[in-house]
Write a structure and sequence with these properties.
Layout (H helix, E strand, L loop, with lengths): L2 H10 L14 H9 L7 H6 L3 H7 L2 H11 L4 E7 L6 E3 L35 E7 L2 E6 L5 E6 L4 E6 L9 E10 L2 E10 L3 E8 L4 E2 L3 E4 L4 E3 L5 E3 L2 E8 L2 E8 L5 E5 L8 E6 L5 E7 L2 E9 L5 E10 L1 H6 L6 E6 L4 E6 L2 E6 L5 E5 L6 E6 L13 H6 L3
Antiparallel strand pairs: 1-2, 1-25, 3-4, 4-5, 5-6, 7-8, 8-9, 9-10, 9-11, 12-14, 13-14, 14-15, 15-16, 17-18, 18-19, 19-20, 21-22, 22-23, 23-24
Length: 395
């Protein structure tokens, strides 16, 4: 018998491959599996392509709420940048989760006007970004009458608000947006009257009205500073210049009251940003060249709130890697607890806990960055129409 004939029976005795694992038949079990997918833009679109049954499960609003609640803090998708002419979106994630820049561009109005209103919808010199939080972007329009535009880039929805008539004639405004519950949002408005007085009020989309206007008068002159507010606990905080020092303006969302906390005298460059301390209390970061100090407010032995130095950070690795004399703070990412630092090489995201950094932009201009964090959910964004295809094409 030939060697070929002797080997042929062995070939036929090949090991049978195991049958492919079957998908779970129970919808509850499948939901639990889908719930544990990473909260990235590509996760649910990929799952929806498996079958109509999977798509139906991930598109269910109840599942979407569970998905968001299960993962807690949403991923940081990118940044909106205020450059005085437009508000472009800079995606941060890599493929397959990278969001196309055009996906988060403001859709133009057909006639560039809103029926019955006297302001433009387009993003131009008449509308400037003032805040970004909880998947919403807030713009302030010039006037009078002044107006606010709340924009949901994922759902592609807009809501326009006119300011209370009592405040519309004032000269300087700032505002913040937040979404305490998924179905409703709030807008906090700060208006400055003269050089020693400012007022605030809160709008709720649930009631559709502005709340009572509360005011505060100071003895010192106020120089309001542009820039986004920071959410600390249940208060929105803005940085002020109360001559001759800096201060933090606090707006309590529960009581809708105002308070001012003056900062301690600081040496060196005045690069400041409001941040939460590690214990969740009000804090701020002071950067001089590549040296940073983190301060927090805490009660002393008499129960009075005082500022104490929490810790110091040296950005030596950032300085040695990317040359320059100093850094400029151009934003703060609340969900990531990271400051955005401008250097001669571009903009970096510096995580305050680990002091690790990541380059996010080559732009060297001193623009303000507004981080956009959002948990994409089926049926409310990239799974609708061609939007899902845009992300899936990146795979």
């Amino acid at each position: 018998m030939s060697a070929r004939a002797e080997m042929s029976p062995r070939r036929r005795r090949r090991r049978a491959s195991p049958p492919p694992a079957s998908l779970p038949d129970d919808d509850d079990m499948l939901r639990e599996i889908l719930l544990r997918l990473p909260p990235r833009p590509s996760s649910l679109p990929r799952a929806s392509l498996v079958s109509k049954r999977w798509r139906s499960l991930v598109a269910d609003p109840q599942f979407q709420r569970r998905f968001r609640n299960h993962h807690g803090k949403p991923p940081l998708l990118g940044f909106f940048v205020e450059d005085r002419r437009s508000c472009p979106f800079f995606p941060m994630l890599g493929r397959p989760d990278r969001i196309p820049r055009a996906r988060f561009s403001m859709p133009p109005n057909k006639d560039d006007r809103i029926p019955g209103a006297r302001f433009s919808m387009s993003l131009n010199g008449d509308n400037r970004i003032v805040d970004c939080r909880h998947g919403l972007v807030l713009f302030l329009g010039r006037g009078p009458p002044h107006h606010l535009l709340v924009w949901d880039p994922v759902a592609r929805e807009q809501r326009h608000l006119f300011l209370p008539p009592e405040l519309d004639q004032l000269s300087f405004f700032n505002a913040a947006v937040l979404r305490p519950t998924r179905g409703h949002f709030q807008v906090a408005l700060i208006a400055f009257a003269g050089i020693t007085r400012f007022s605030a009020c809160l709008y709720s989309s649930e009631t559709g009205i502005w709340g009572n206007i509360n005011s505060l008068e100071l003895e010192s002159h106020i120089l309001p500073l542009e820039g986004a507010g920071t959410l600390i606990g249940n208060s929105l905080c803005w940085l002020l210049r109360v001559l001759p020092h800096y201060a933090i303006l606090e707006f309590d969302l529960d009581t809708q009251s105002l308070a001012v906390a003056e900062l301690p005298a600081l040496e060196g460059d005045q690069e400041l940003r409001i941040i939460p301390a590690e214990d969740g209390r009000l804090g701020f970061i002071h950067v001089s060249q590549f040296h940073a100090q983190l301060w927090k407010r805490k009660p002393d032995s008499d129960g009075l709130a005082v500022w104490v130095l929490d810790r110091a950070i040296e950005f030596e690795e950032l300085r040695s890697t990317y040359k320059g004399d100093s850094i400029t703070l151009v934003g703060f990412a609340e969900e990531s607890n990271a400051v955005l630092a401008l250097t001669v090489s571009g903009v970096f995201m510096v995580y305050l806990q680990s002091v690790e950094f990541k380059k996010i932009s080559n732009v060297r201009s001193n623009f303000t960055y507004y981080p956009f964090a959002c948990c994409y959910a089926a049926g409310t964004g990239i799974l609708d129409g061609h939007d899902g295809d845009e992300v899936l094409n990146n795979m």
